[in-house]
């Protein structure tokens, strides 16, 4: 009799408990409510993590073009008169950087940096880089003086 009771205790201790259908249904309902909001959060985080990367590349491309313009300005043979949109035109496709475009705008300004119609010895050069069809953009400006 004693051995039957001890065997019963051992059997109860190692008895496996199974999952009920109600527990499975509750788990499915909880996941179906929580999963869409989690997926949306992951998608938003992924989209926001690419933004700084794109801005970094855009900044690099804008500064690169501005450095070319500055170098052309201070090169002995070109000077102030070489800063024209003809020498630094728009690029709708930049080699090695698909999806990025670059534009250079040159405007005459006066000593107070107000836009004027003719050359008074100052030019405002703006290099604009955009990506994702204009969804993101960055501008770099520099003032050149004719001295």
Number of strands: 3
Work out the helix count: 2
Report the portion of residues in β strands.
Answer: 15-25%
What level of helicity do the residues show? Answer: 40-55%
- Overall pLDDT, averaged? 86
Domain count: 1
User: What gross morphology would you assign?
Assistant: rod-shaped
The termini sit apart by 114 Å
**What's the main sheet like?**
3 strands, antiparallel
Report low-confidence residues grouped into runs of 5 or more: none
Sketch the topology as an H/E string, one letter per element.
HHEEE
Strand order of the largest sheet: 1-2-3
Entry summary:
The chain is 45% helix and 20% strand. The chain has 147 residues and is of the alpha+beta class.
Describe this structure in words.
This protein is of the alpha+beta class. The protein has one domain (20-145). It has 2 helices and 3 strands. It has helices spanning 2-13, 21-74, and strands at residues 100-109, 122-131, 136-145. The protein has a 3-stranded antiparallel sheet with strand order 1-2-3. A hairpin with a 4-residue loop joins strand 2 (122-131) and strand 3 (136-145).
């Amino acid at each position: 009799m004693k051995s039957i009771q001890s065997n019963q205790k051992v059997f109860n201790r190692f008895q496996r408990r199974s999952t009920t259908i109600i527990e499975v249904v509750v788990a499915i309902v909880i996941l179906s409510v929580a999963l869409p909001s989690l997926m949306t959060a992951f998608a938003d985080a992924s989209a926001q993590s690419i933004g700084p990367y794109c801005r970094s590349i855009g900044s690099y491309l804008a500064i690169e073009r501005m450095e070319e313009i500055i170098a052309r300005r201070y090169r002995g043979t070109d000077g102030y008169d070489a800063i024209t949109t003809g020498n630094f035109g728009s690029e709708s496709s930049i080699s090695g950087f698909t999806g990025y475009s670059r534009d250079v705008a040159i405007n005459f300004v006066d000593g107070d940096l107000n836009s004027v119609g003719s050359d008074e010895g100052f030019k405002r050069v703006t290099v604009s880089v955009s990506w994702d069809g204009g969804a993101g953009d960055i501008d770099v400006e520099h003032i050149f003086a004719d001295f």
